[in-house]
Specification:
334 residues; mainly alpha; Cytochrome Bc1 Complex, Chain D, domain 2; 2 domains; two-stranded antiparallel ribbon; 5% strand; binds heme C; iron; Cyt_c-like_dom; signal; metal-binding
């Protein structure tokens, strides 16, 4: 595939059709029916599948490592109690095994890092970015840098980016959870509750705790001890609204109005969840400290319905607040 075909707007649609043919029925049903189409000048990449991996003639030992990375990505619960302390897999938020546009595809990290990251104020590489999702989204502790599990996860991300040049030019189509237009009527708790009760409780439960069966996450927790903590990206209203709009209810993506998506995001993010790992002991102070780089878009440390959100010492299932790797760091070489 040469670069010019990747900039060609129809490339994604065509290749998606080709890759859909090879997906199994269950996975096919999980693919969004009506994803927004690429805009002129956007960089489009269709990541390879695990079937493509088997056909590739790379070293068998590398294939084994990438398979392990894939397995960790879709069943991260195998690290429960060691690195993961909630009811999430990486694929709970990075849908389609981390390949799907508008659902946090993970390959862009492999070709745009190392880069400066505002959230922690220093240059991060791929392993550190993965570590971030362990610390916040999985309410956990990342596998050590350079460990078998970390190398396997990084290798899986890099495999998905196969053929993409480093630091590609142009905006990446469907990266992250692209921001929706601002809500015309603001965000409202009562309206959001209604949206949740009508469209979400059948899977995620009225108390947001989801469903775990025989150690397998069937439906992840949208809030509470089994969910991501207060420092996770989804806690920002604009990120959650976009995730929901483009991916939920499961099997009916893009069916809610933008307004409903903002309202339900606000409702979910007005519930409690495990403490922010950067907690200083005072929720208002913590909000203020990370306001510019993060909490300006969350309800953490604000009063909603008479409750000060995040005002507790509950760290969920783990027995520590903050994993060591979150220490601030400066690049010291001249
Ligand atoms: C609770 C939801 C959630 C879970 C679970 C989760 N992530 Fe993320 N992840 C996010 C959000 C939100 C972002 C930021 C997306 C954005 O900036 O729009 C993100 C970003 C990323 C990125 C950067 C993507 C880019 O475009 O540069 C990588 C890599 C990543 N996650 C890897 C992982 C891995 C590996 C796991 C499992 C160990 C994981 N994530 C689990 C929510 C999640
Ligand atoms: C048919 C079942 C189903 C319905 C209905 C549903 N979800 Fe989900 N949801 C899932 C599954 C399953 C996942 C994990 C993704 C995966 O494994 O493919 C998920 C993931 C999520 C996540 C990310 C992980 C987490 O728990 O934070 C959020 C947020 C979410 N759903 C919100 C919603 C909202 C809001 C609605 C209603 C508008 C909704 N869901 C409706 C099944 C459902």
């Amino acid at each position: 595939m040469n670069i010019s075909t990747r900039y060609f707007p129809q490339a994604w649609a065509f290749a998606a059709l080709v890759s859909l043919v090879s997906l199994n029925v269950q996975a096919e049903a999980r693919y969004p029916a009506n994803v927004p189409q690429p805009k002129e000048g956007q960089f489009v990449h269709v990541p390879p599948t695990m079937e493509d991996l088997e056909k590739n003639n790379m070293h068998p030992e590398l294939k084994r490592v990438i398979r392990r990375g894939h397995d960790l990505f879709v069943n991260t619960q195998q690290l429960r109690g060691k690195n993961v302390f909630n009811n999430m897999n990486c694929s709970s938020c990075h849908m389609g095994e981390g390949r799907q546009p508008f659902a946090g595809p993970v390959w862009p990290a492999a070709v745009t890092l190392p880069d400066f990251r505002g959230k922690n104020g220093h240059v991060n590489n791929l392993e550190e970015r993965i570590a971030g999702c362990f610390s916040y989204s999985m309410n956990g502790k990342p596998p050590a840098y350079g460990s078998d599990d970390m190398i396997a996860l990084a290798a899986y991300h890099q495999w998905l980016a196969k053929g993409v040049p480093m630091y590609p030019e142009g905006q990446i189509y469907g990266r992250g959870y692209p921001r929706l237009p601002e809500p015309a009527k603001g965000m409202d708790y009562a309206r959001g509750k209604k949206v949740f009760e009508t469209n979400c409780v059948m899977c995620h439960g009225a108390d947001g705790s989801g469903l775990v069966q025989n150690g397998k996450v069937v439906f992840p927790a949208t809030w509470g001890d089994g969910s991501n903590n207060w420092g996770a990206g989804l806690v920002r209203h604009f990120t959650l609204a976009s995730f929901v709009k483009h991916n939920m209810p499961l099997g009916r993506p893009n069916s809610l109005s933008d307004q409903d998506a903002w309202d339900v995001a606000y409702y979910i993010n007005s519930q409690e969840r495990p403490q922010e790992p950067r907690y200083t002991g005072d929720v208002r102070e913590t909000r203020e400290k990370y306001l510019k780089t993060f909490h300006a878009n969350t309800s953490y440390g604000l009063k909603v319905n008479g409750r000060l959100l995040g005002d507790h010492d509950n760290v969920g299932e783990k027995d520590f607040l903050k994993p060591d790797v979150l220490r601030p760091r400066t690049f010291t070489a001249e």
